[in-house]
Write a structure and sequence with these properties.
The structure holds three protein chains of three kinds.
Chain A: H1 8-46, H2 49-64, H3 67-80, H4 87-113, H5 116-124, H6 129-159, H7 171-182, H8 185-217
Helix pairs in contact in A: 1-2, 1-4, 1-6, 1-7, 1-8, 3-4, 4-6, 5-6, 6-8, 7-8
Chain B: E1 8-17, E2 20-30, E3 35-39, H1 46-53, E4 61-66, E5 69-70, H2 77-89, E6 91-94, H3 106-118, H4 122-135, H5 151-163, E7 169-173, H6 181-196, E8 200-204, H7 208-214, E9 217-222, E10 225-230, H8 232-237, H9 242-255
Parallel strand pairs in B: 3-8, 3-9, 6-7, 7-8
Antiparallel strand pairs in B: 1-2, 1-4, 4-5, 9-10
Helix pairs in contact in B: 3-4, 3-5, 4-5, 5-6
Chain C: H1 3-42, H2 47-62, H3 65-75, H4 85-110, H5 114-122, H6 127-157, H7 169-180, H8 183-212
Classes of the chains: A mainly alpha, B alpha/beta, C mainly alpha.
Family (chain B): Belongs to the ABC transporter superfamily.
Subcellular location (chain B): Cell membrane
GO molecular function (chain B): ABC-type amino acid transporter activity; ATP binding; ATP hydrolysis activity
Chain lengths: 218, 256, 215
């Protein structure tokens, strides 16, 4: 059958639209995973035992099972309990929660490594525990944790391809649709890969810049 | 061919990293059995010169000869590798940070190269290890790992490891600089013993007392050149150059 | 929770778990091979190999594994590569995880202080002898734990081959979710099996890590 890349340009609009969706989903899921990660970390460290322990079990399950399986659970599970969300919302929630768990691990370690004296100092000036966490401990922990979270976000971009399986029309599914019409899988998956690769390079570039910033600010 | 006067010969050694000249046209002869100390401030090029002798740091110009054979011959890559590996068997080296292999016992540190390169049998290798470790006073620790030894003990094992290849020449690169003061002497004793056996040695050191008591000649290097050389009695007691005097003054003041 | 349904279908999940294990083992072996070759290229004396090694790592870590799998499985026939889904899964995932392992192996090797190589070379050992006798035994000990992390990731990424219809755990869960409308129960069955596999692997890695430490 051979390769023929001349068919690519006429379908590029579909691919580009898919690309925009991928960026949108990745950004939305990244935000969910970032703030979710902070909330999860606080629950895992400071919530009462009765909440903390089951929560840790759920975190452990999320880290021990594949993302794809989790996406199926969330997508079909929500339908089962009567919440019929568009696929892309389910995708964002699934991706976001999955990476929130991984971010939470990083943030927990970072919170614990913020000097104990910081919490004590904040308490002595009259802040409550919650205020001390919000204003003093967490901001420092987050700064420490930005570079490794960056790695998670790059992983998130690549894993966003998985939401194609639950029917979200992002880059991968767009490529699949075009392939359905043209029967040219090699060409269009390669084009999709190229788009992912470029976004990935941009993210790595941004990450390096941020890391340099942080290195300077210390 | 053996020329005992020109046992080690360095001819117009030159080395630069980009624009920075680390060694500027250095020439030096060492006779068989002679012990030469190289002193000088850090960044003077003394370690670079030492590491050029066995080509750990390649020169950018000049020649190194050992016992009538050129060390840094100009050969195609593969032939050169073969040649330099052969040459290095004759040049023992002791490092500031010991560089013992942490995954091997003292015995295996000593016997690894002889077994690999000279095809020694297990029995012969064990005999060799016992002999060499005994010489440096480490026989009782023959089956210890480096992590179980003190710094001085590590360095003695490292010396035994180098001696096990029966080298013609020993290079010491600040062998006692990383040691706690109370451990320096045990290493110096081993080096003295080697001197008494007329091992040819080139020693980069900060220890003027040791250099004065053991060495036949002292070289003072600064900024890539040999500023002054001569017997220790002259260089240490009556240096002719102002830079040497200044260095010794600072150094001795620092040591006190 | 529909326990009765779970009891009825779990034998199929067990079979699927066996497929997941086979996939994981074969992928891990291929990944290690690719990782060793990749690291050798990244550390080569020759610039052309260093470039090829860096390109391999960058491209395979810079694009989604799912797309790589699709190119191989669906696009392969266009360039004369005919593989069944299982084979494509092993090769696609193995080459992908190999890129991550390349960096793990290389990282361990370059973290060995350069004095170790110098000490071996001054004794007269060749480049290869110095690497094999002095560097590798130390680096191998450092690799165990991070390779264990790669392995953990690999086991979870075997789920991707569900997308090319290999009947492993995730595919089986997906199929039963579709036919029974019991997503939670099916997730639980597959999830427990995944966690058993991952837990056992983690223990094995920890055991090996303890075994190989000096003293």
């Amino acid at each position: 059958m051979g390769l023929d890349f001349t068919v690519v340009p006429e379908h590029l609009d579909v691919i580009l639209l898919g690309c925009l969706w991928t960026i949108f989903i990745a950004v939305a899921a990244a935000l969910v995973s970032f703030f979710g990660g902070i909330i999860f970390a606080v629950i895992a460290l400071y919530a009462p035992w009765i909440i903390r322990q089951p929560f840790r079990l759920i975190e452990w399950v999320f880290m021990g099972t594949p993302l794809l399986l989790q996406l199926f659970l969330i997508y079909f599970g929500l339908v089962q309990i009567g919440i019929d969300l568009p696929a892309f919302v389910a995708g964002i929630i699934g991706l976001g929660l999955h990476f929130a768990v991984y971010n939470s691990e990083l943030i927990q370690t970072a919170i614990l490594s913020v000097d104990k004296g910081q919490m004590e100092a904040a308490r002595t000036v009259g802040l409550s525990r919650g205020q001390a966490l919000r204003k003093v401990v967490i901001p420092q922990a987050v700064r420490d944790v930005i570079p490794p979270i960056g790695n998670n976000m790059i992983a998130l971009l690549k894993d966003s391809a998985l939401v194609s399986v639950i029917g979200v029309s992002e880059l991968t599914l767009s490529a699949q649709r075009v392939i359905g019409a043209t029967y040219r899988p090699f060409e269009f998956y390669l084009v999709a890969a190229a788009f992912y690769y470029v976004i990935n390079l941009c993210m790595e570039w941004v990450q390096r810049r941020i890391e340099r910033r942080i290195a300077i600010s210390r | 061919m053996t020329d005992t006067e020109h046992f080690v010969e360095i001819k117009h050694a030159q080395k630069s990293f980009g624009k920075l000249e680390v060694l500027k046209d250095i020439s030096l002869n060492v006779a068989r059995g002679q012990i030469v100390a190289i002193i000088g401030p850090s960044g003077s090029g003394k370690s670079t010169l030492l590491r050029a002798i066995n080509d750990l740091d390649a020169l950018t110009g000049g020649e190194i000869w050992l016992d009538g054979v050129q060390v840094n011959k100009n050969l195609p890559y593969r032939q050169y590798e073969k040649h330099i590996n052969q040459m290095r068997q004759d040049i023992g080296m002791v490092f500031q940070h010991f560089n013992l292999f942490p995954h091997m016992t003292a015995r295996d540190n000593v016997t690894m190269a002889p077994k690999l390169l000279k095809g020694l049998s297990k029995a012969d290798a064990d005999k060799l290890a016992e002999e060499q470790l005994d010489k440096v006073g480490m026989l009782e620790r023959i089956d210890y790992y480096p992590s179980q030894l003190s710094g001085g003990q590590k360095q003695r094992v490292a010396i035994a490891r180098a001696l096990a290849m029966k080298p013609k020449l020993m290079l010491f690169d600040e062998a006692t600089s990383a040691l706690d003061p109370e451990l320096v002497d045990e290493v110096n004793q081993v080096m003295k013993k080697l001197a008494e056996e007329h091992m040819t040695m080139i020693i980069v050191t900060h220890e003027m007392d040791f250099a004065a008591s053991v060495c036949d000649r002292v070289l003072f290097m600064d900024k890539g050149v040999v500023v002054e050389e001569g017997p220790p009695s002259v260089v240490f007691k009556n240096p002719t150059k102002e830079r040497t005097r200044e260095f010794l003054r600072k150094h001795l003041a620092g040591a006190k | 929770m529909d326990i009765e349904l779970m009891q009825r279908v779990y034998p199929f999940f067990l079979q699927a778990a066996w497929v997941t294990i086979q996939l994981s083992v074969l992928t891990a072996l291929l990944g290690l091979t690719c990782g060793a070759l990749g690291a050798a290229m990244r550390l080569s004396r020759l610039a052309v190999f260093r470039f090829l090694g860096a390109a391999y790592v960058s491209v395979f870590r810079g694009t989604p594994a799912l797309i790589q799998l699709f190119i191989l499985y669906f696009g392969g026939p266009q360039v004369g590569i005919q593989l069944d889904a299982f084979e494509a899964g092993v090769i696609g995932l193995g080459v992908n995880v190999g890129a991550y392992m390349t960096e793990t192996i290389r990282g361990a090797i370059i973290s060995i202080p350069k004095g170790q190589r110098e000490a071996a070379r001054t004794l007269g050992l060749s480049r290869w002898q110095a690497f094999y006798n002095a560097i590798l035994p130390q680096a191998a000990r450092l690799m165990v734990r991070p390779l264990g992390v790669n392995l953990n990731m690999l086991i979870k990424s075997t789920a991707l081959v569900a997308a090319i219809s290999v009947v492993e755990l995730t595919y089986t869960a997906q199929r039963y979710i579709g036919s029974t409308y019991k997503p939670f129960e099916m997730f639980l069955l597959a999830g427990i099996l995944y966690m058993i596999i991952i837990y056992a692997t983690g223990r094995a890695v920890a055991w090996l890590d303890r075994r190989v430490q000096i003293n």
